[in-house]
Amino acid sequence: xxxxxxxxxxxxxxxxxxxxxxxxxxxxxxxxxxxxxxxxxxxxxxxxxxxxxxxxxxxxxxxxxxxxxxxxxxxxxxxxxxxxxxxxxxxxxxxxxxxxxxxxxxxxxxxxxxxxxxxxxxxxxxxxxxxxxxxxxxxxxxxxxxxxxxxxxxxxxxxxxxxxxxxxxxxxxxxxxxxxxxxxxxxxxxxxxxxxxxxxxxxxxxxxxxxxxxxxxxxxxxxxxxxxxxxxxxxxxxxxxxxxxxxxxxxxxxxxxxxxxxxxxxxxxxxxxxxxxxxxxxxxxxxxxxxxxxxxxxxxxxxxxxxxxxxxxxxxxxxxxxxxxxxxxxxxxxxxxxxxxxxxxxxxxxxxxxxxxxxxxxxxxxxxxxxxxxxxxxxxxxxxxxxxxxxxxxxxxxxxxxxxxxxxxx
Length: 410
Ligand code: CAP
Ligand code: MG
Known about the structure:
By secondary structure, the protein is α/β, with parallel strands linked by helices. Helix content is 40%, strand content 16%. It contains 18 helices and 13 strands. Strand 2 (62-67) and strand 3 form a beta hairpin. The protein binds 2-carboxyarabinitol-1,5-diphosphate and magnesium ion. Magnesium ion (MG) binds at residues 147, 151, 177-178.
């Protein structure tokens, strides 16, 4: 009798996509897990006169384990259209209808492990963490960046001045904010050209820095827009993966005409990741971004910033960026969101050094302005890198002292 219940069975990890779900349900867990497996593979809410034993045996998902509110379900590789479907079809299978199933209640996709034959279909990051470090000539220290603030409203010239001041203050990275693209107050062409001039000026003064221009737009236009901003001098591009889609990241990363690193912002992820009982954790999102070729990805602030997030989960995201996976290059983990100098010691203690730490308000809100805000961030990163307490370091670094006086320590 064909069934979805294969508790305790060992499956060949090269032949299955294996998912972990957290389930909050009135149903017995066995019933809920079987309903998930059926709905996402060969079943539906009722039995069918058209399903055969062979179909379920060959293509039915398998419930491998149930422990408390967790269940592990394996989807046969044949359920995925390797060549054509890409990430959109993967998500339709492992996530898809699940979150709306009345019968189940709440559930969350906590993790996914892909077999080699699927990972091999993806190229992963072109630059990755190492490539970014080479571009910036920053082999070991955390990268330290800013987000131009206010997030919208500055015209191109002032945006470029912000970037120049941030670079002159020692930052390695800056970026457009997630809502800035090609508004009338700051046309993307004018902004890209002005920022490129600021970066060239910094380079001539011996300072390497990249700025990510946000190319988030419609799928049929995003590669063309990225090609244009590259021709206008962009040294890095940014894409909002949740609003643009994983396929947009992959299109940019795999297009031979795009030769600059991709900073991946995850704005709107909170709609999926925030509820610990319902949605999709950031871990599968992180793995998919790495497969699709993101070079840097926001992974949270390890419990010390403004955005909600479980430090353990953020650390799992960071490790998913850096741990071996399908031979892909490492992704630069980005810690951002309510960051200010006084928290960098605690953050680096948790994250280690292979991260990009960035602050918008934590730079532009410094009483001395952007350059001194940048200096304070760099001083805090230097202190953390050298293992010196930030408060001690501040005794001999006035810009950091002022930042600690304004925002305190974490
Ligand atoms: C940070 C930020 C980023 C957040 C997004 C913002 O600005 O620019 O978008 O980091 O969160 O708009 O909030 P501040 P996450 O430094 O001024 O907070 O990185 O968690 O996706
Ligand atoms: Mg932002």
